[in-house]
Amino acid sequence: MTQAKGQAFGIQLMAFGVILLPAMDAAAKVMGDSIAAATIVLARFGFQSLFLLPFVWRDLYLPRGQELRLHLWRALGICVSTFCFFAAIQVMPQVDALAIFFTMPLLVTLLAPWMLGETIGWRRLSAVAVGMIGALIIIQPGQSSFGLVTVLPLIAALGFAFYLLFTRQLARTSSTQQGVAVFTMQFYSGVFGSLMIVLAIVLMQPFQHPAFEITWPEPWQWRQLILVGVLASIGHVVVTKAFQYADASVLAGFQYLELLSAAVLGWWLFGDLPTLNTWMGSAILVGSGLYIFHREKQAH
CA spacing 20 to 30 A to 146: which of 56, 96, 168, 200? Predict the structure, then answer.
């Protein structure tokens, strides 16, 4: 495959992935508050593991030492992120939650010096500050009808930022210098994520919080839960594979098509129309994120 064809194929994979991932969120949102958020998260990771098992079982091994610790930290990050995001979209429009979630590249920039030893200049720090202003425009502190729920996508973004940073650390460990297969990495995320959410459900039972309530799903909920797991598996694998075919600099802008996909699905399925604040804040966040990526590319 020529470089040009590889780049084009990578873009196609990214476009397909950013359609699937909001569809996964929509499949979870359809269930509303009829089922606990923790149950949806457990299904998301559990069915992801089952779906990927046939692709990885020949190459499975038990991670040890530093590699195991990084897999566990990755799983914790994605578990917290998924739970908070699913809990948020049970209450607020999907596109609003996703727009706030896109503070994630800004948080990665802020955390990278601490976790990876990278240095950032004043330009990227300024872009982070501008991006956070965009997030505040969407959240509307003190005025939003969703109250403290708007904080959940921010926590989800922080969890996913840690997930990405631990993924980078995992790639640097001596035992994974040859690279961990995409399917294998996603499989471990599903297995460890499932164990963590089960532990959280057990620990939260004395508090009787509705988000961790244990109920047996109805048949239509089983269908949605399976759909969430399958879409999560395909979506994350496709997006990861896209970066193997096309340069990150080419794909950076296409990642934000996820906002448009979420807006269309939210309007079609739930009648949610993004507000002017959402569009304005999203534009600022997207601009800040792309500028940060541009500066990172120049730095490297």
Answer: 200
Token pair 């509307």 is found at 140
- Residue 45 token pair: 């990771």
Q: Are 161 and 111 in contact (CB under 8 A)?
A: yes
pLDDT by residue (tens digit) across 92-147?
A: 899 999 999 999 888 888 888 888 777 778 788 888 899 889 888 888 775 555 66
Specify the amino acid at residue 6.
G
